[in-house]
Amino acid sequence: MAKPTIAGNRTGRKLGQRVKNKKMKASSRQWLQRHINDPYVQRAQLEGYRARAAFKLLEIDEKHSILKGARRIIDLGAAPGSWSQIAAKVTGSTDDDIRVAAIDFLEMTQLPGVKILQLDFLDPSAPAQLIEAVGGTPDLVISDMAAPTTGHHRTDHLRTMHLCEVAAQFAVEVLGEGGHFLAKTFQGGTERDLLNMLKRHFKQVVHVKPASSRAESVEMFLLAKGFKGRQAEPDVTEA
Ligand SMILES: C[S@@+](CC[C@H](N)C(=O)[O-])C[C@H]1O[C@@H](n2cnc3c(N)ncnc32)[C@H](O)[C@@H]1O
């Protein structure tokens, strides 16, 4: 896959545009203004990605090389689908030979080579359905899941951390040896128990903040590389 450069505005569209609609709420106007002036949004449109989030995955991959050689990928919290687009490309997934399974409770427009489940990942049937959909042992589990915001910061934070923990548990149950796990988390939010569990099961565990993740956002990514396999020591929580 040709690797796009990460920074800069190559769309030819002017940055620094202002939204003047006075009928809009100030917060909506600010959001829209930031969105249309965001070089990653413009690049996503230019390069045919469904979301600017594509560049977070590409940038993490540029530094940590997690996509190369991936044969089957599970994408958690996948809508609108830019990570799935990349996953389908790197695995060579086609509708005749599906190698990417994606889940989101939001509706997602079909993508060639991607089996989409419209389902809550926390639904007890989700793990089995994902494994069946991806058609074999995955070597990469990626999660960009963020809980819908309630406006209560602490609640939102805890819900997204819970999603990260459940995704990590799923990864250690399904990944093939040598596989990788990438998940959205929050700065200062990763629980020590979760980090310890991942360190027991993976050769390397790091936090990553790609440049395309907005500086003002507390979003970070947790990357666990080199799954040791299920013969690794039992998962005992430390006292
Ligand atoms: C930041 S977006 C993902 C963007 C995606 N990586 C892309 O490249 O297009 C986070 C997604 O997580 C989904 N999500 C949050 N909680 C979920 C859950 N429990 N089950 C399934 N999807 C969930 C949301 O609906 C949302 O679409």
Automatic annotation (TrEMBL):
GO terms for molecular function: rRNA (uridine-2'-O-)-methyltransferase activity. Residues 11-20 have a biased composition (Basic residues). It is found in: Cytoplasm. It is an enzyme of class 2 (transferase). Keywords: Cell cycle, Cell division, Cytoplasm, Methyltransferase, rRNA processing, S-adenosyl-L-methionine, Transferase. Residues 49-227 form the Ribosomal RNA methyltransferase FtsJ domain. S-adenosyl-L-methionine binds at residues 81, 83, 104, 120, 144. Pfam families: FtsJ. GO terms for cellular component: cytoplasm. Its main location: cytoplasm. It catalyses: uridine(2552) in 23S rRNA + S-adenosyl-L-methionine = 2'-O-methyluridine(2552) in 23S rRNA + S-adenosyl-L-homocysteine + H(+). Residues 1-20 are annotated as: Disordered. The active site is at residue 184. GO terms for biological process: cell division. Its EC number is 2.1.1.166. Specifically methylates the uridine in position 2552 of 23S rRNA at the 2'-O position of the ribose in the fully assembled 50S ribosomal subunit. Belongs to the class I-like SAM-binding methyltransferase superfamily. RNA methyltransferase RlmE family. PANTHER family: RIBOSOMAL RNA METHYLTRANSFERASE (PTHR10920), RRNA METHYLTRANSFERASE 2, MITOCHONDRIAL (PTHR10920:SF18). This is Ribosomal RNA large subunit methyltransferase E. It comes from Rhizobium favelukesii. The lineage of its organism: Bacteria, Pseudomonadati, Pseudomonadota, Alphaproteobacteria, Hyphomicrobiales.
